[in-house]
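Contributing: when you submit paired examples, paste them exactly as shown. First protein:
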Amino acid sequence: MAAAAARLRKGALLDAARRALREPSLVAVGALLKADVPAVRAARDAYRARGIRVKKLPNRLCRLAVADTDRAFLAGLFAGDLVVLHPTEASSDAGAQARDLLAATKDAGNVKLLGGALDDAALYAADFERLRDAPSLHELRASVARAVREPAARAARALRQPSVSTGRLAKAQAAKVGRGVRARFDGLGGDDGSGG
């Protein structure tokens, strides 16, 4: 009976590890500098305040959870007292999530980020800093919109301006042609152009 209960508990923990390590777009693995109950509770509170979930899971189960997946590279991180961190809400703005994660890590004071994953890409500790400094999705969309609008505006200006200058050029050419035709008529016999 006790063995069956232990298997059920282990199965539930493995499911929790799979959900925590596979489902979120951004996942971080952090080493606990102090693993006593008050320090872990304080860390959980600091992360929860920033919308980040903290899971303390057995390393062996975490290695099993990522085995044969696109996040198998995480298995090398699971040694010692660790926590798995991920945002509670899905977002496409990894930069904002990294900012929250780093701020919460600073507030927690007893977690050191070791690495993690963004979708199927491996992240090292320094990569969270780079993500934090990356422009937000809103800023990227705005810059793309500007990049698309600017050539169109430039093209519209270029199309308007040549029409004015082309008109002036055509008038000047017509005036030149007109002077040439008049000179020919003048040479044929008559200053008044009557030919007569």
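Second protein:
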Amino acid sequence: MKITVLSIFTIFFLASSCKSLKYTKEEDLKNIKMPFQEKDYPDSENAFFSIQNAKGQNLNLIRNRVLLSAKTDLAGKIKTVINTIANQSLGFNNDQERESFDSKATSISQQSMAKILKVDSKTLREKNGDQYDYWVVYKVLLEDVVSLINESSLGFDVNSEQLFKVE
């Protein structure tokens, strides 16, 4: 009886795994190559990068949407790094101190977005349509972020290497 149950389980497992191997072929799916690869734009001790895209008919609208997404992404990275350093360096005595610090960290991350730079972009268009697919790479230089942090009297000073290592 044990052999029968084991053989049925084995047959079921083999049949289901073969399906997954043929999935791409049977479903007529293709691998998509993105215009920009994350490995080509890794975060470093010099800059944080953000690769974004949007699709739509109005090119100006999707450019603005992509810029907003990049700013949100980069500001989030910066705020996370600031909060991580603060948790390692500072001891908050109460929630009010934590909220005050969080407000300063948010302000610094938002101010950093004034210095965002476009690195590269590609605009793709459907062959038989009016849809655009807009891809862009943005960066923020960590030296700009470091100067904002160090001028903000957060209770610690940092350098760009520290910001990168925390992430």
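If you have annotations for the second protein, write them as plain sentences, like these:
The helical segments are 2-21, 23-26, 59-89, 95-112, 142-151, 160-166.
Residues 78 and 167 are 9 Å apart (CA to CA).
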